[in-house]
Each structure stands twice: as C-alpha cells, then as structure tokens.
Amino acid sequence: MNRRQMMKAFPALAAATTAVAHARPAEAQAVTQQTPKAPPAYKGRLRPGVIALSYRPQLEAKEMTYEDIVRVIADLGLEGMEMTGYWLPPMLNFPPGTPSTEISEMVRKTPATPTPQWLASLRNTAFKNGIDIYGVGSPVKMAQPTPELRQKEIAFGKKWIDIADAVGASSVRVFGGGIAQGATETQAVEWAVEVYKPILDYAAAKGIVLGLEDDDDLTRTSAQLLTIVKRVNHPNARIALDCGNFRKDGYKECEICAPFASSTHVKPQMSAPDGRREPADWAKLFGILANAGYRGYVSLELSTPDNPVPKYAAELIRCARMYSGA
Prior knowledge:
The protein has 326 residues and is an alpha/beta fold. It has two domains: 1-34; 46-322, TIM Barrel, CATH 3.20.20. Helices cover 47% and strands 17% of the residues. It has an eight-stranded parallel β-barrel with strand order 1-2-3-4-5-6-7-10, surrounded by eight helices. A two-stranded antiparallel sheet has the order 8-9. It is globular, with a radius of gyration of 26 Å.
C-alpha cells in the first residue's frame, strides 16, 4: 500500500475504531445497570435434604446402599443427606417392623465399625453427585446414671464424631436419653451435661456441631431442650430439630427452637396444640424456620414400609426454594 492509499484508508479505519469504542461502554452498561433483586425479608436460607432413615426398608433388605441413596436423591433434586447410624457396617439384621428405639439399643451393643475405605468411597460418591453429607445421626444417649457409663458414652460419642469427620459432615445428632429409674429429671440433665461437654470440645476441634434432638423423655419439649443447651453453655451445642416429634403445639415449639437449630427434619404430620396429629403445613413451617434465621438443611424423615421419598421430594424442594435466597 502506497502513501496515497494509506491516507484514503485512515478515515474508514478511524470510523471503525470509534464504533468499537462506543460499542464497549454500551455493552458494559447493559450489565452494570441491571438492578439486583431486593434481598428477602427473612434471614434464613433453606436447603432440601433427606434423612437416610427414609430408606430404611431398602437398606435393611440390602436393596440399596448408602452410595445408591446418594445417586437417587441427586436425581430427585435434593441437595443433602444426613446419615443414620443404624445401617453402617457391620449391617445388623433387624426384623421387619422393629421399633427404632430397639434398633438403637441393638446398634449401641454392636457399634458401627465402617472402614476408612468404606467412608472414603461414600464421601467421594457424594462429591461426584453434588450431594452434601452434612450430618450423621448417632445413637448416643447422654444421660447415663453411673460415672462408668458416662465415660463409656463419651468415648462412644467421639467415635461418631470421627465418622462424621471422615465423610466431611459438619454436624452429629445426639440424644439426651431417658430418665433412669429412681432418678429425677434434674439429675438426668446433669448426667447429660457431663457427657455433652467433653464431646462438644472434641467435636469443636474438628469444626463439628452436636445437635440435641427432641426425642427422649429428657427432650420432649422446647423447654427441656433449651435447659440442656443453655446449661452446657458451649458454642457448638445446638438443637437437631425434628419438627414432627413434638407431642403438642409443634409449630410453636419449632418457633422457639429454630434460632438454636443445627439441622431440621420434617415429616408429613405435625402435632396440633391439643396433641392431635394433623397434615403438616410445610410452607408455614419453612417460613417459621427462615424468619428465625435458620440456615441449613430441611430434610425429609419418613418411616414407612415403602419408598415415599419421590412423592414428597418435589414439595420439599418447592418450599425450600421459597426461602433459599434465590
């Protein structure tokens, strides 16, 4: 190109350069001028999950493994799973229909001993499927009536914390236990606290919280739960809130407990103020949790002889997304 041709080309080149220069700011404005959605009025963030107990028939019949559950719930759109300690190796044979209280005692007599390889494989499968194994449900029962039994329970609790740590879980569910014959509730609370404190310290060193579930004689009400949690006075002491377990006034009890929750379970039914069982209003319940500032998993816990998880999963996901911050 000679000098005259170059001079003729400059105006066109300059025009093209100007057009590009104007185009870039316009593109940038198209992004930066988007107005973000107003933040929701609630502080909570809810995620849909499942308690492995919901697959009890399939686990006991050896039709499914924990890794199978991970793959199935991922396909259903659920995001997390809490392991239930009853079906870890060695797998015990429970007669069909055995109450969970009896199963718990059987597991306590023959504790789980999963190998590091078994735990590592489960953790890897969960990661590959985008599932968070966020918690482990243990059969720890803290209100033991003798010093020897309390020391044994402390060691038992540490075992479950190690299992949780191996699968990457950040919470372990524990139980207060019953009130021993001849003891008072006050004594039982002190025994539970004596066990709770050292296992909380052990868990805290691994970044794990211990959620006390509303279940046994010592933890049937929000008042009982909070008595223990406040008495132990530890930052890693929380409540594993089973919304369907309260005997009376379930929504009110959940409202009281929600600010202290580390995990949450829901069932198809809730208790009315007079103790009657009625169909659960999940939208109402999820609103209570979110407005209390709960951030974490709300998981299905079902106990039926079939496999109803797919039946309820879509509604659980819908309600969780209402309060997910999305």
